[in-house]
Amino acid sequence: MKRLFLFVFALVLSLGHLPIVNATTFFSEDFASKSLGQMTTVNVASNANWVYGSYQGDDFAKMNGYGADVASDDWLLTPQITLPAGAAANLFYTTIKGFDGPALQAMISTDYDGSGTPTAVQAATWTTLGGALPTNTTGYSSATSSGPVDLSAYADQKVTIAFHYTSTGTVSGAAATWEVLDVQVGDGGAAPSVAASASETSVLTQTPLTFNAKINGGTPPLQAVWQFSDGLTQTGAQVQHQFLNPGDYTATVTVTDANGLSATSAPVNVTALKPQAYVLPEPKGTLRVATFNTYLNRTVEGELAADLGAGDAQAAAVAEIIQRVRPDVILLNEFDYDPSGDALDLFERRYLAIGQNGAHSIQYPYHYVAPVNTGVQSGKDLDHNGTPGDPGDAFGFGSFPGQYGMVILSMYPIEADKVRTFQKFLWKDMPNALLPKNPDGSSYYTPAELDVFRLSSKSHWDVPVYVNGKTLHILASHPTPPVFDDGTLGVDKDVVDWNGTRNHDEIRLWADYIDPAKSGYIVDDKGGKGGLSANARFVIVGDENADPKKGDSTNKAILQLLDNPLVTDTDPTSIGALDNTDARFGASADDTIEDGLRLDYVLPSTFGVTVDQGQVFWPGRTYDLSRLTGFQTVISSDHRMNWQDMTLNVTAVDDVMPSEPAPDSGNTATSNDGGSGAVGPWALLLLTGPLLLARIIRRKHNNPA
Fold it and tell me: Record's superkingdom (predicted)?
């Protein structure tokens, strides 16, 4: 879950972060030490806990129970605070809420013993305090000041303040993200002071920049007014502003409290630069192949189609990237599957077929879509939380069938009858599978669970594409992330690495599939056995959720492919990855995700394919097209497209031209049962009649609408 900002000119985000510094302060914590500072945590339930976090200049304590093992019950506590006799004490705190879930509770106790154990916390008497809190149910709120919370009833006592986080589950809508930016206890009364900051000191023209006012003291309510040297003003402690022309600019903020006392910050200096043109290399070789985790997933079934129909800025940015890179074959990960095909149809007609921001439109005559395991219920309690039927009990984690689906778009014919899928292949049927075990060595999953447990969290597809008489097998997948479990096998002690081991074996399936000596055990969804023949040409594409050097993958799982003699790895890079200086795992030139990991791969076979060139689409900060990617902010996706140009050479064992209709703008290969017998375009015409025929004719002869 990430903050998704709508970048519009002069957008006011909030009144923002208004911490109070009092005339007399009894306790203060603003997490500026880059840690939880004086605060302590107590975990009563779930494997999630309060942690330190930072974002765009703000430091905070953060708790998020989404994806935890069970519903959360977690406490963030101050040390014991002594309130003098007769003190008119008040509590002030500032919070941000992300997405939907139960409200955070500010609480006070006079009998908590400070031992830091769940038993002690639960034995203490806690009283809920007031204070303003954000109430949003989508996205991230602005920073919200509690205002003064009266503690005069606790004068001449020793107290502990707690922030109590609870969730009702581990999925969207049940577990919000809460951030506490500061906590102060004092008697109030100080005049305000203010310091201003900007998220960047150098920015491209017409690019939104975040300005923050850190306000101390003053009597609420307070008002913050920004003055920019381009002549514009904005109101709010945190605002977005962009400069239209190159030059050096300043910004100051003036804060006024309820008593009319005011303070003005020192100026913040910002340089606005004219962007450089980001130019992609001209195509080389036979074709350009790409993979792109588009982040076009939604939390509710049908929501993606609704968003695309209404007009969606994120989808437009995804489409523009595709239009500018112009791959001949591309795998889209995290594109929600729906059996009707409405979402894909809308994306093709209203986004790809319409030029975005001066880019040329692009239309793919062929595509392949099929069901995936995400959201398909197993009938078992696979996440062992005692509540069968929730997203963690699906064959792949998901709120509905098809969430986080996949799509292949192609300029070249797909031989639908030769597509093979492995959606239903059981994990236990892989020889020497890395099935997760409990710390005592017993199986984490019961025999009954393993009897239904599918290896692929989404699916594995072998989709043969015919390129000028040569066959190229597109091996597409999207293994589960190796996180959201107890830890990493071989790294953390006494853990059950159920997602890490599954990710490892999902990657292994392709490593075995391309090797005739190892693939005999593999059975596709139609009962076909074995893998690719020797001297078959392939390219493995997808978000593999595994980095060879960084992150949490089990046994460096991706090395099963990168070090494989049957696979070519050119390790493509980008300028933007090195500019991603706030990456959680550190910036490397070959990163494909904002966290600073290499997760997305285009890996051709050593046989029959020569790689001519390749890149990760991630323009540097000073380039015009960085507006499509950004840094630590989701504009198009949190992933970056990986593309490679390649030449298909020599003769492969299955280089046979398919029997297929003449290319038409509506040709479709679609599998509705997950099997290898995909439905071809003319069969679809017979099944769907005049409606699809009208669609094909309209797309072929009319301008898209």
Answer: Bacteria
pLDDT in tens, 132-188: 999 988 778 888 888 789 898 999 999 999 999 999 988 778 899 999 999 988 876
Give the 3-state DSSP-derived string for 77-121, with helices as H, strands as E and coil as C: ECCCEEECCCCCCEEEEEEEEECCCCCCEEEEECCCCCCCCHHHH
Please determine, looking at this structure, whether the domain spanning 22-186 carries the CATH number 2.60.120.200.
Answer: yes
Would you say 75 and 162 are in contact if contact means Cβ atoms under 8 Å apart? yes
Point out which residues pair with 225 in neighbouring strands: 235, 254
Query: Are 423 and 372 in contact, with CB atoms under 8 Å apart?
Result: yes
Whether residue 661 has a cis bond before it, omega within 30° of 0 = no
**Number of other CB atoms surrounding residue 426 within 10 Å:** 14
pTM for this model (two decimals): 0.70
Q: Which two tokens stand for residue 390?
A: 């929730």
Q: Say which residues have a Cβ less than 8 Å from residue 698's Cβ, sequence separation at least 6.
A: none
The structure tokens listed for 668 are: 């479709």
CATH fold, domain 287-701, is Deoxyribonuclease I; Chain A (3.60.10)
Q: What is the pLDDT of residues 576-618, one digit of tens each?
A: 999 988 888 999 999 999 999 999 999 999 999 999 999 999 9
Task: Spell out the domain ranges in the chain.
Answer: 22-186, 193-273, 287-701
CA distance 689 to 683: 10
461 Cβ partners below 8 Å, 6+ apart?
368, 370, 406, 408, 419, 420, 421, 422, 474, 475, 476, 477
- The CA-CA-CA angle for residues 256, 258, 259, to 5°, reads 90
Two domains, one topology: 22-186 and 193-273? no
Element (H or E) spanning 701, and its range?
A: helix 690-701
